[in-house]
Amino acid sequence: MIRRTIAAAVLTAALAAPVAQAGHREQFVKEPTAVGTGGAAGTVDALATKAAIETLQRGGNAVDATVAAAGVLGVTEPFSAGIGGGGFMVIRTPRGKVTTIDGREKAPYAMEPDSFFENGAPLAFDPARWSGLSAGVPGTVAQWDLALDRYGSKSLRKVLEPAIEVASRGFQIDQTFFDQVNAVRDYFDDVPSTERIYLDADGTPRDVGTTQRNPDLARTLELIARGGPRAFYTGPVARATARAAQSPPVADDANHVWRPGLMTESDLRRYEAEWREPTKVGYKGLDVWGMGPPSSGGSTVGEALNILEGYRPLGADRTQALHRYLEASRYAFADRGKYLGDPDFVDVPLRCLLSDAFAAQRRSLITEQAVNAAVPAGDCGPAGTVGVEQEGPSTTHLTVADKHGYVVSYTFTIESTGGNGIVVPGYGFLLNNELTDFNYTELTHPNSVEGGKRPRSSMAPTIITKRGEPVLAVGSPGGSMIITTVLQVLTERLELGKSLPEAIAAPRASQRNGATSIAEPAFMTTEAPALTAEHGHAFGTPQAEIGAVTGIEFLDRGGFLAAAEPVRRGGGSAAVVSKKR
After folding, report:
1. Alpha carbon distance 241, 216 (integer Å)
2. What is d(CA 246, CA 456) in angstroms, rounded to the nearest whole number?
3. What 8-state DSSP symbol labels residue 351?
4. CA 311 to CA 491: how far, in whole Å?
5. Distance CA 83, CA 217 (A)
6. Model pLDDT for residues 509-535, shown as the tens digit of each residue
7. What is the set of active-site residues?
8. What is 234-274 written as a DSSP string?
9. Do 302 and 336 touch, CB atoms closer than 8 A?
10. Which of 174, 381, 492, 524 is at a distance of 20 to 30 A from 557, taking alpha carbons?
């Protein structure tokens, strides 16, 4: 059983580590693995995980703790997520119901399929991104409010207190934060409101070890805490947000062209987060729940798992299992590229995509040799052509569970690192560039641009249950590689004998229906040689990091194993309410 197969070495290491958070009087220590009771949380940031654990300790549930942690991440991880973006949340209730909230950004209603075109041709990615055009109507605040209204036990005002405190008092800049700013500083210095917060007077990022404060964001969060989502979607904040998108507030000496966008106050006022049915597939006695359209995460992970389920065992050895993982990803991505879009605008054939019969058809095409080419989509009805990937790798994921049975797997984002680069003047938050997630170079694809439409996403927050009881919850950032990251972690954990911390730490590779697979350097030296020699796989230029997973495994007698990355993205933070001794 999965609950009883955690490696003894992992438990020993977790128990020997410094105390993460066992009570109000004990110091919080950042660590990637924690085992204990009372509730658990995992994020990429120690302050965010601390906010979640303290919320649980003070009587809040996992939904309360998720919003508290997410609020902090919007301060400490502002280039990945925040109130200027959106996301997807999968929730399991104490009664065993699994539901999801779609807080995905929407295109302004004035947008047309050719809004990213100039002189009859689509813009290149950078000119499209660094503009007001790329900003979708943010959904994060509405999503938090909807989750708390239905399932929370504390007010929005209460759970935003940690984020307000961190924004006001500041936090210490680490190397990851510095590197993220440094990668985009040539655009940040075009926008005075962005430059003022994140760059020194000489135009360079603020030094590692110095304190980063954002009093404007603190005031904005206070407005939301007092006035609820209305304070964000109407009034001065909405007015400033629409103005920043319509007329990007760039300096006279900006060295890039920043195109005006189309977002209006009316677009903001009309935004609503949506309850959605989760995706669900059975996998060898487990139920795997994910996010449905407009995210492609649940359907693509689900389809790939359906393909892999037909192999018993998954492989004669680890190399064959990884070969099948990569090829299943290839075929699932072909189908994702053709069929997935906003279900309010297109008919997404989920029943077909997630059927065992369709998986059997796709599995029959997999041989012992890698295709090393894009494969066509399977037949699930008419749709557009396979589109080009544009998703950026920046996003963040958090996983929270409580002693009552609530489990939350939540991925949210502002898209590329730094979003569209525009901090709303006076309010301290970056706008997203989510609208570049549309297949904006195509006019008739299921994921083409339309006013009021949500762009397709790859976010894949996932919860696994067995006979209704929670077993595992995971998720990751990483753009379209979110899907393969989650799928690989599940494969490592459920099929290849690794504990959850080991599955998260394992070197990764990603196949998204291309001529080559992308892999981390450690995968290239350990796994790739055999995959190439035995199955003919081709690999492109290594990518330094793929994903940044957090997860929770549910143990016997109310125990939790919380796990985060030990190294990627500077190392994550996992904690429990009461640590096992």
Report:
1. 14
2. 23
3. H
4. 12
5. 10
6. 999 999 999 999 999 999 999 999 999
7. 395
8. SHHHHHHHHHHHHS----TT-SS--------HHHHHH---E
9. no
10. 492
